[in-house]
Amino acid sequence: MTAYDYVIVGGGTAGCVLAARLTEDPSITVAVIEGGPSDVGDEKILNLRNWINLLETEYDYDYPTVEQPRGNSHIRHSRAKVLGGCSSHNTLICFKPLPQDLDDWGHGWTWDAVGPYYDKVQLNIIPVVEKDRNPIAKDFVAAAQKAVDVPEIDNFNAAPFEDGVGFFSIAYHPEKNNQRSSASTAYVHPILERRNLTLLLNTWAGRIEFDGNRAIGVHTDKGYIEADKEVLLCAGAIDTPRLMMLSGIGDAEHLSSIGIEPKHDLPGVGENLLDHPESVIVWETTKPLPENSVMDSDAGLFIRRDESDPRPDLMFHFYQIPFTTNTERLGYPAVEHGVCMTPNIPRPHSKGRLWLKSSDPEEKPALDFGYFVNPDGYDEQTLVDGFRIARQIAEQEPLKSWLKREIAPGPDVTSDEALSEYGRRAAHTVYHPAGTCAIGSVVDGDLKVIGLEGLRVVDASVFPTMPTVNPMVTVLMIGERAADLIKEA
């Protein structure tokens, strides 16, 4: 069968939700085009703690960034090449978006409209269970409470929060040897026998086919797949705009300049590239750490510096491993036993764009996140503030006794200028690209591509602004709401 009611491009976080919800109607046929393999039975994927070993492997599209004059030009953006997408590849830290994050979006995407969809999300989202609470992470939580006077939060998803420290909520199964609860395991594995669902794995989508201004199918490396109702783009904030541009949808002048015939002039495609950048401060520990953990970054901290906004504006992940990929490149030593705090910018002021370098579908697009380019200096000041707060926490018992010495940037790096310079050069991504097909500029409030028919975008590329928190649950909620919008059409 090569014709289906709905063709979903991308079997990732949102694509799995749509596949499950749309095939609840046995009269509806759905095909999912996924560039990677299945995750069924693949312990490399299903073992959550193995996430870091998936980077730059056959499961990773591994996108470089263009030169970042004020940031780190060596960042590689991991994008998952496997069923379940980044939910099969990431740490599965799960946050319900904060109400104001959604109210900022407009076009009907308000907290009142979207918030209830959290209750439909099928992943097994729970706070880290006691057996997985590493002693040093517990002591980080206790030290942070004392050092910066924030409450300990038992469940970050129980209610909106202004600040706080605690163990994250993570989508996993403690009773199943800490296996992932991903979009694929939660939504697709239980329905693999549905006869109206077809998974086209290891299949690359190269171009959308149109009849006039209506999307009618997708050309892949395995043949043409026809869509009788809609083509649903769920390939993520890099590959969704990439496919649109390869299909002639985007800035007409740019497309013409690289030999692609413009089908629909839509300059917003690829613009508004968002991310959550963070940097790192590393300590060597006095001894090896206990082994228990979910995924080695199980606890975190939120600070609210701007009291005019109800949301936190500085975040930390606490790594129970020495995450030194970027610091070693700068000449700092590796350590056998260590921990990190990673000051993170929840709502950065800098943003970027992506574009095609040629009409060759095999060539990776150019990604320019514009890290730290906003002249107001907000983003880099957030890192500087974060380093100072991290050092306060490190000086506080019970964490202090674990720490032997600060490795990077080192205790002699103290001025704002030096901390900013180090912080930007050692910065990395939390792998949260978003925004490149934003609601209001590329898609409308129903997620339909503006000016076209039969084509919707359902993934993180529709974010107009970045949520404060890790965005995977927001993508799941978008998928759930999009399924209802599609059914109502």
Descriptors:
489 residues, 12 helices
Report how far the terminal alpha carbons are from each other.
25 Å
Largest sheet, in brief, is:
7 strands, mixed
**Strand fraction:** 15-25%
What is the count of helical runs? 12
Low-confidence stretches: none
The tally of strands reads 24
Shape, per Cα inertia axes: globular
How much helical structure, as a percent, in the residues?
10-25%
Structural class: alpha+beta
Radius of gyration, rounded?
A: 22 Å
Mean pLDDT: 96
Structural notes for this entry:
There is one protein chain. The chain has 489 residues and is of the alpha+beta class. It contains twelve helices and 24 strands. The protein has helices spanning 13-22, 43-46, 99-103, 111-114, 135-148, 183-188, 236-246, 252-257, 325-329, 378-394, 416-425, 472-488, and strands at 3-9, 30-33, 63-64, 76-77, 125-127, 164-167, 169-173, 179-180, 197-200, 205-211, 214-220, 223-233, 249-250, 264-265, 277-278, 281-285, 299-303, 314-319, 338-344, 353-355, 366-368, 403-408, 428-429, 455-457. The strands form seven sheets. Strands 1, 2, 9, 10, 11, 12 and 24 form a seven-stranded mixed sheet that branches. It has a six-stranded antiparallel sheet with strand order 6-17-18-19-16-22. The chain has a three-stranded antiparallel sheet with strand order 5-7-8, with no helix packed on it. Helix 8 links the parallel strand 13 and strand 14. The longest helix has 17 residues, at 378-394. The chain is globular and about 65 Å long. The two termini are 25 Å apart. The model has no long low-confidence stretch (mean pLDDT 96).
